[in-house]
Structures are given as C-alpha cells and as structure tokens.
Design a protein that fits this description.
single chain, about 160 residues, mainly alpha, Four Helix Bundle (Hemerythrin (Met), subunit A), 6 helices, about 5% strand, globular
Length: about 160
C-alpha cells in the first residue's frame, strides 16, 4: 500500500481514530474463537488467525519504536525485520490474549505520543526499501495495517459462518 507523505488534518484525525479503535476491534474479531478456529489460515497459504494477532502486536511495537526514533533522531534508519520468519517462531503458537493485551497497552502509549506530534514531516528511512518516509506516512500505514488484518479475521469468520 503506498502511503502518502503528507496527510491533511482531517486524514490525520481519521487515522488516529482508527488506531484508537484497533485494540477493541481486534479483540472483538477473535472473541469466542476456538483453538481450531484460531489455527485456521485466513486464506490459502496465509497466516493463521493466531499468527495474525501476534503479528499485529509485533508490527505495532515496531511502529511505536519508529515513531520515537523519528521524534528524537535526525532521519533515523530503522531496523527492518522478517515478518514471515517471526510468524513461525514458537511464541506465535501462544494464546492470542497476551498480544491482545499488548496491543491495548501499546496503543495507550502510542496515541498520546502521536497526538503530541507537531511536525508530521519528520523523516525516517527504511533501508530495505531504500526510501525515506515521514511520520504522516507511518500514521497512515499503521492505521491501514490494523484495519487490514482485522478484515482478514472478520472476512474468514464471515466465510466460515463463525
């Protein structure tokens, strides 16, 4: 998903709202699922619901660190990570509750930081992509990211009649 380098005030508020809502939406998306359902891929060859929940927590932890780096350093180069390899580590077999709690607590910390940003053009560089982004880009990306993965789960639930 291409992310804009500059958001309008309205787009920024909409993205912040999406981030505020994500913990509850993610929790609701997996509520009542059995272990067998949590271990169902959301599409053929895709991650399981359980892996998706853990991925959202990990990805948004990285977002939090990236925001703080961008606010405290001049154009920091962030550390990329191998999402698919992380998704196959043993902790991705744990119950989702730990990651749901983590997303909730993380967003409780992330949102006040983002709400205090005065310069959304602050840059950060992704070395694997060879591209410089802004805090606006990061905000847009992670607001989309949470909705994207909740839709994977809710779409699967709808298709399966769960």
């Amino acid at each position: 998903m291409p992310t804009p380098l500059e958001l309008s005030t309205r787009e920024r508020e909409t993205a912040l709202t999406h981030l505020r809502l994500l913990p509850g939406e993610l929790c609701a998306a997996v509520a009542g699922l059995s272990n067998a359902q949590l271990d169902t891929p959301y599409r053929e060859g895709g991650w399981t619901v359980r892996q998706v929940v853990h991925h959202v927590a990990e990805s948004h932890m990285n977002a939090f660190v990236r925001v703080k780096l961008a606010l405290t350093e001049e154009n920091p180069v962030i550390k990329p990570y191998e999402e698919d390899l992380w998704a196959n580590l043993p902790d991705h077999q744990l119950p989702p509750e730990g990651s749901l709690t983590l997303v909730d607590a993380l967003h409780a910390r992330l949102l006040p930081v983002l709400e205090g940003v005065t310069d959304w053009s602050r840059p950060w560089t992704h070395p694997a992509q060879g591209r410089t982004y802004t805090l606006d880009s990061l905000l847009a990306l992670y607001a989309w990211h949470g909705r994207h993965h909740v839709a994977h789960i809710t779409g699967l639930r709808g298709r399966q009649g769960w």
